[in-house]
Amino acid sequence: MTISKTAEALFKPFENGRLKLENRIVMAPMTRCFSPTGVPGPDVAGYYRRRAENAVGLIITEGTVINHPAAAADHGVPHFYGEDALEGWSRVVREVHEAGGKIAPQIWHTGTARERKKFPDSNVDPIGPSGLSLTGEPVSEPLTVEEISGLIQAYAQAAADAKRIGFDAVEIHGAHGYLIDQFFWDVTNVRTDDYGGDLVGRTRFAVEVIEAVRAAVGPDFPIIFRFSQWKPVNYGAKLAASPEELERFLAPLSAAGVDIFHASTRRFWEPEFEGSDLNLAGWTRKLTGKPAITVGSVGLDSVFTSLFEEGKGGQAAGIDNIIERLERGEFDLVAVGRALLTDPAWAAKIRDDRTDELLPFTREALTTLS
Question: What is the secondary structure of 178-197 as a DSSP string?
Fold first, then answer.
């Protein structure tokens, strides 16, 4: 098979321990809400299989919630616990592997992003490190140390189940203002015990989650960790305002057992700090020495948040910039979101230089599992 000269860098194999990928394209995790009662069905399996059949190197699933009653913020989000849900995910794994792909579940707890009004029949409160919303408003009681311990074990159990049913890696969702990120951020974490304090102190919950996941899956099962600076209520938020602060933040996570960092940004081309062209993934790779995944409006002409801000979709766009950065070694893998959501064959079309066939992203793509 002839690979487009332009796309060669994207289609070089990648290897990190036992994770061996045919290329550098990752399907970014995107919440779909097509799993009634939390169980992914054959339509979900087919949705992921189509991407594997069309040259995606690694699929990271939509967020799947851990075994905690307040983990989900929306109905139809898949569970990653319980016999029926795990059997559904086993089917997904089989389909993806039969198509020649690799797949990792993203394990997730939404924290205080869960709104009571969405679950009127539930008496379960949202939870967070200090019981605060992303705007700092009280919504529940702060988590106790005993509750924190239970949450850590729920993450570990999900990761163990991912390995047991045949996934190729696991991603821990520590971004976008959800539970783990709520521990990171000083707006949502005002604890004065060992799970609060300064930036490094606020990494303790994530560190203990990673350590428990590592103990559950063993030394050679790949752990991916997704983090972000931005929050849904504050796109300009910064956990780390400088490379030095970012290094302090990442060091304990790296030491705890992360193999690959997934650095979530809204626009991959934007520099993270003044004085350097490196984006967040580039700085992460430089500071930790570990592989990094970049993400953020790859292959489209608009940022994903414009969908909500302006009701827009996005036209297919060139990838020269992402290729140049990849060739420079700024990051190792490229996660593609909306472009792959609307066009299952996006990666194959890029590989084969069929860019004139790329499909634009529209809001209607969210209503089906194409």
Answer: SHHHHHH-TTT----STT-S
134 backbone dihedrals φ, ψ, rounded to 5°: -70, -15
81 catalytic residue (yes or no): no
List, for residues 141-177, the tens digit of each pLDDT value: 999 999 999 999 999 999 999 999 999 999 999 999 9
Residue type, 224: I
CA proximity to 237, closest of 205, 266, 194, 207: 266
Taking alpha carbons only, the member of 264, 199, 256, 253 closest to residue 226 is 264
C-alpha–C-alpha distance, residues 195 and 355, integer Å? 48
Contact present, 331 and 294 (Cβ < 8 Å): yes
User: Is residue 302 very low, low, confident or very high in pLDDT (cuts 50, 70, 90)?
Assistant: low
The chain-wide mean pLDDT, for the chain, equals 94
User: pLDDT class for 300, splitting at 50, 70, 90?
Assistant: confident
Contacts of 358 (CB under 8 A, 6+ apart): 299, 316, 339, 343, 346, 349, 350
Q: 41 exposed, middle or buried (CB, 10 Å; 0-12, 13-18, 19+)?
A: middle
pTM of the full structure: 0.95
Catalytic residue among 81, 178, 195, 235: 178
Provide the 3-class DSSP secondary structure of residue 231: strand
Using the predicted structure, report yes or no on whether residue 314 has a pLDDT greater than 60: no
Dihedral angle computed from the Cα positions of residues 97, 289, 293 and 261, in that order, rounded to the nearest 10 degrees: 80
Three-state SS across 275-337? CCCCCHHHHHHHHHCCCEEEECCCCECCCCCHHHHCCCCECECCCHHHHHHHHCCCCCEEEEC
pLDDT at 299: 82
Nearest Cα to Cα of residue 260 among 282, 285, 287: 285
Measure the CA–CA gap between 193 and 200, rounded to whole angstroms: 13
pLDDT at 297: 87
